[in-house]
Write a structure and sequence with these properties.
The chain is mainly beta. It has a domain at 22-102. Helices cover 10% and strands 29% of the residues. Strands 4-3-2-1-7-6-5 form a seven-stranded antiparallel β-sheet, with no helix packed on it. The longest helix has 13 residues, at 2-14. Mean pLDDT is 81; it is low at 2-19.
Length: 127
C-alpha cells in the first residue's frame, strides 16, 4: 500500500501523469500535416526543457527566440491533449491545435507548386 502511494506521488510530482517520457514531445508539429510550416520541438538547454521554434521553407527560428524554453507539461502556455496532440496558447489567449506529424525535427518543408502551367492567353493579360 505504501509503495503504491509513493509511486502515485512520484508520477504526479514528475508531471508525467499523461505518460510523457523524456523527449516525448520531440518532433515536428503542425496544425495540418500537409502544411509547409509548423513547430520544431526538441530538447534544448536544461534537462527536461524544450525549444519550440516556428519553421517554414526558409528555415527555423533559433532555439528560445520564437517561444521561451519550456517543459511543455505544467506550462500554462501549452495544453497536452495526448502524446501526438497539444494546444499552444497564442497572443490574446487563443489556442491552436498542433499534431505531431514527424519525429524528425528537420523535415524538408516545401510549398506546394502549381501542378499545371497557367494559360498563356487569358483575358486581361498584358503582353
Amino acid at each position: 500500500m505504501m509503495r503504491t502511494l509513493m509511486i502515485l506521488v512520484m508520477v504526479f510530482w514528475s508531471g508525467s501523469a499523461l505518460g510523457a517520457e523524456p523527449g516525448a514531445f520531440t518532433g515536428f508539429w503542425k496544425s495540418q500535416c500537409k502544411d509547409a510550416f509548423g513547430l520544431q520541438i526538441k530538447p534544448f538547454g536544461e534537462v527536461g526543457k524544450y525549444s519550440v521554434s516556428f519553421c517554414g521553407p526558409g528555415g527555423c527560428f533559433e532555439p528560445g527566440t520564437y517561444r521561451p524554453l519550456t517543459t511543455i507539461e505544467n506550462d500554462s502556455e501549452y495544453e497536452v491533449i495526448s502524446r501526438d496532440h497539444i494546444k499552444v496558447v497564442g497572443r490574446g489567449g487563443s489556442r491552436t491545435d498542433y499534431y505531431k506529424c514527424s519525429k524528425d525535427t528537420d523535415p524538408t518543408l516545401r510549398y506546394k507548386t502549381p501542378s499545371r502551367k497557367p494559360k498563356e492567353n487569358y483575358p486581361g493579360r498584358k503582353t
